[in-house]
User: Fold these one by one.
Assistant:
Number 1:
Amino acid sequence: MSNSASVNAQVNGRAPLVRLYLVRGVLAAVWAVAFAHAHDTLGAAAITLLVTYPLLDAVSSAVDYLSVPDGPEQRVQAGLLVWKVRRGVAQLRV
């Protein structure tokens, strides 16, 4: 395989991850704007936003975990996934 073909294969293989990161960024921005408007009174909307964002982040981490080959990177992703799920569950108890 030529060098340019190898680079193209790597770029094409990462396209779904780039899309995922873009969606995560947009969701974070939308979440921040929504929370800025809902935080005055800690009502149902604010609580829903506080709980859903960490869980959406955990789902994104699960996709990251599945997209990384076996090795140290996958173990790091697994640790981040566990931490994010625990954070989301802890906020459910509040």
Note: The first helix runs from residue 3 to 38.
Number 2:
Amino acid sequence: MTDTTVALPAITAVIPQREPFLFVDTVMDNLPAEETTATYRVDVGNPNLAGHFPGNPVFPGVLITEHMAQVACYCLGSHINNPDCQYLLVRIENCVFKEKVVPGDTLTTTVRVSRMYERFASFSCQSFKQNRQIATADLLVSFHQPASSDKES
């Protein structure tokens, strides 16, 4: 793993998501197309919390999964190194949430490439808060690098 911390805007140079749907703050370690560790701090002002258990907000599990997918896309994108490449989450398996995430928590997620083939990469993902595992999932991500003729259409 590298020991160089990556923050915005270097992250958004690799993945297409932007606020308010960007769920990666910092990439702590990255070995492109092999393994990446990144963080996301759940802020009190996060708009996704407003209606999710008002008065006792909980960060939605689907957004924890989206955070994992964005870290996976960074792992893949830092290898492909094409800003026009499109990444899509196509399958979620074995997804388990073990503890809730609330405002003020920082997620630390490690994704590991299990397999790469053709236009797909499968990832094993683990998310932690305060060194406690809070979620795991196996994700399949597809990627499409547009040919030069695709960009002209």
Note: The beta strands are 6-7, 26-31, 35-41, 86-97, 106-117, 120-129, 132-144.
Number 3:
Amino acid sequence: DSPILQKDGSARLGLVEFQILWNKIRSWLNIFRQFDLDKSGTMSSYEMRLALEAAGFKLDNKLHQVVVDRYADDSLGVDFDNFVSCLVKLETMFSNQPKPSTTLSWVSLVTYYSEEICY
């Protein structure tokens, strides 16, 4: 189960689950605004790395590149919607790790979600 989505298998968010999700989205918006250094409404690969680290996700170089390739637009910018989608995916990946981890590596990606994150 994702730590930010419904937990009871009902495919619906209860009030507490919605509040958790809402608070995360507000926090992610603050991070996005902080690291969209040029205030363009999108983040570059460099800005994205800083933002992901501020959100608690330290990715190795290969995984960071895969994430940018997956969530960036044609001009390699990541907008807020894609930033949130990326964070939801990363939270799901971290929640399914067999033991607590502070760094996701390329091996983690391949082992857990290689197809899901790339498509």
Note: The longest strand covers residues 42-43.
